[in-house]
């Protein structure tokens, strides 16, 4: 068993997880949730991705973002997806078959050691990936290396320090949400740190777009998110199983009363790779 597969963050070594196929399903559920579609597409417009662009997405997963990028880059563009998981890449290949737009290339690899020549892309992106990697700066430096002078490096991440959940037991909610995020991620507040990372990697003209996923109806995505947090809270010994179950039921009670609210902050940050001055 590799060190990656023992890490509490399952997204670091998906192929080592018995639940790999289920994890792929969760990305597609998230990808088609209307409030998530809005957050993602607003970020892609902010980057922006233009017709004819050669675009790289690292940590592409099942290709939710890739399929949007194909449409935006168009037939004269070129889209490349890279992921460390072969399960994800197989799913991405199958799902992109019927997608229109730019030709798609998929590569297996590690975002901290990209198998591409320098200056190869007009734009390089990592969407909900920086949160999961061991060395975020190294990944952003690699994104900058493979981007041409004048091109854009764009990052988007959740910020798990900014999750708002209405629930009858607020103290328990904080204990579970904060406790689980602190045990899984080295930097649970990854989103707000993205602009600093871009600057540290030498990118300039950094712009930030904060956005909020908002749900008042308990979408399948929100339900899966809360269930995973409850499971992990038990796994990490934060609460016992009956308490985790009671916590989940509290959300159902709020849904029934029309009082359910879940928000999750997303931060987007884009920097430009300027040509080296003499
Ligand atoms: C949460 S998913 C995001 C997928 C996609 N970007 C999206 O938004 O739907 C994170 C992805 O990053 C990949 N990943 C994690 N660490 C990686 C690394 N070091 N190099 C390449 N991919 C990595 C995982 O395999 C997974 O597919």
Describe this structure in words.
The protein contains ten helices and seven strands. It has helices at 3-6, 20-32, 34-46, 64-73, 86-96, 136-146, 170-184, 190-200, 220-235, 241-256, and strands at 54-58, 78-83, 104-108, 121-127, 147-165, 204-215, 262-272. The longest helix is centred in the last third of the chain and has 16 residues, at 220-235. The protein is globular. The structure holds S-adenosylmethionine.
Q: Can you give keywords for this protein?
A:
single chain; 278 residues; alpha/beta; seven-stranded mixed sheet; 10 helices; 43% helix; globular; binds S-adenosylmethionine
Poorly predicted sequence stretches spanning 5 or more consecutive residues: none
Hey, roughly how much beta strand do the residues contain? Answer: 15-25%
| Class by SSE composition | alpha/beta
Bound molecules: S-adenosylmethionine
Q: Number of helical segments?
A: 10
Please give a quick description of this structure.
The protein has helices spanning 3-6, 20-32, 34-46, 64-73, 86-96, 136-146, 170-184, 190-200, 220-235, 241-256; strands at residues 54-58, 78-83, 104-108, 121-127, 147-165, 204-215, 262-272.
């Amino acid at each position: 068993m590799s060190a990656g597969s023992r890490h509490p963050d399952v997204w670091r070594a998906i192929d080592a997880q018995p639940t790999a196929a289920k994890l792929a399903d969760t990305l597609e559920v998230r990808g088609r949730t209307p409030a998530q579609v809005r957050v993602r597409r607003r970020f892609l417009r902010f980057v922006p991705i233009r017709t004819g662009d050669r675009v790289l997405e690292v940590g592409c997963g099942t290709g939710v973002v890739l399929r949007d990028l194909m449409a935006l880059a168009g037939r004269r563009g070129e889209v490349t997806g890279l992921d460390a998981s072969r399960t994800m890449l197989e799913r991405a290949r199958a799902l992109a078959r019927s997608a229109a737009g730019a030709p798609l290339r998929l590569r297996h690899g590690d975002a901290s050691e990209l198998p591409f020549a320098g200056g190869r892309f007009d734009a390089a992106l990592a969407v909900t990936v920086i949160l999961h990697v061991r060395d975020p700066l190294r990944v952003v430096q690699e994104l900058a290396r493979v981007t041409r002078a004048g091109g854009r490096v764009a990052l988007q991440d959740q910020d798990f320090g900014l999750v708002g959940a209405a629930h009858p037991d607020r103290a328990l909610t904080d204990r579970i949400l904060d406790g689980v995020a602190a045990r899984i991620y080295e930097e649970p507040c990854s989103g707000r740190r993205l602009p600093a990372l871009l600057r540290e990697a030498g990118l300039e003209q950094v712009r930030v777009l904060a956005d909020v996923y908002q749900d008042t109806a308990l979408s399948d995505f929100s339900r899966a998110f809360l269930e995973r947090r409850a499971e992990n809270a038990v796994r990490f010994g934060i609460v016992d199983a009956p308490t985790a179950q009671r916590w989940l039921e509290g959300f159902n009670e709020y849904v029934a009363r029309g009082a359910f609210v879940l928000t999750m902050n997303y931060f987007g940050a884009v920097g430009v790779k300027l040509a080296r001055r003499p």
